[in-house]
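Example record

One chain of 357 residues, shown exactly as stored in the release files.
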Amino acid sequence: MPKWSLWILTGLLVVTPLTACVNRRNVEQSNSQSGSSTRNTSRLDTILQRGKLICGVGADLPGFSFVNKEGRYGGFDVDVCRAVAAALFNNPDAVEFRTLTPKERFSAMQAGEVDILSRNTTWTLGRDTEVGMEFGPTVFYDGQGIMVTKESGIKTLKDLEGKSICVQTGTTTEKNLADQMAKAGVKYTPLVFEETDATFAAYAQGRCQGVTTDRSQLAGRRSILPKPEDHVILDVVMSKEPLAPCVLNGDSRWFDAMKWIVYALFNAEELDITSQNVTQLATTSTDPVVRRFLGAEGNLGPGMGLPQDFAVRIIKHIGNYGELYERNLGPKTPLNLPRGINTPWTKGGLMYSPPFL
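Predicted structure tokens for this chain:
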């Protein structure tokens, strides 16, 4: 090999590693800056700086999300929002509610108009991927049903042959109805509306012989009809409807915070921690599982950007999942919805929280 070739080869052997090292350092710096930027621009920080949560809800569904005579939002979905506010601010009223229709809800999330959506929203593959949502734990396991008048004599899907059915567009309901009727070989006429009120008004006026949506919604709307006892929800479940709060994709810090705040509701019920005993247990319990969950030891809250006592704040103000359910949907409410599979896994239900470790 000529001497000049040796010089070139030697130079390449020296320069190439140095270049690679510099490039790697640049990539690492870039990744670091990107990661730092991501952390700094988390929605969680924005909410904390703002001093209140902005939550997208409905306003026309008794038991889940409605506005009472005093103009105050109430219901199961609303309490989920208040639980998040309690965790962040130790104040369940640090929430600004935005009323959204089914058609508006996802565009409002994508536009950044709300921080979280808690509005009877079914967790589906399409919404999780194409729409760009990140769903938290399912807070209510539901299924789609149909309500008819007792005097109609309708008892099965087959009895709806040739009848009109009122259904709300922009939901999973419309497609489920079409799928199940096609499967049953039943021809029907859908009357489609954008608003919940318009859908049920048409049903109440007799413009359709049946109205369909989630069974819990049917129970809620039946409770405010002039004569609830004149209407029956058929013993038919047409779909799986796992209802869950959601946030926008791409913000793991905010998603983690929302997710574990909801899990705290489940975990508190499993541990028999209630709004009545949480303050005492936080200071006197010797159970390491309870102490860690309530922030008496460990570092679970700050580890994800929440206060150390975030679980105590939630339970003190909102209660555990069971208390939330009983207050809004239980036997002492007009809805009187049996808990069914919405009971803790320890009692045969599906409500389950991963360990707080």
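Notes: The two ends are 64 Å apart (CA to CA).
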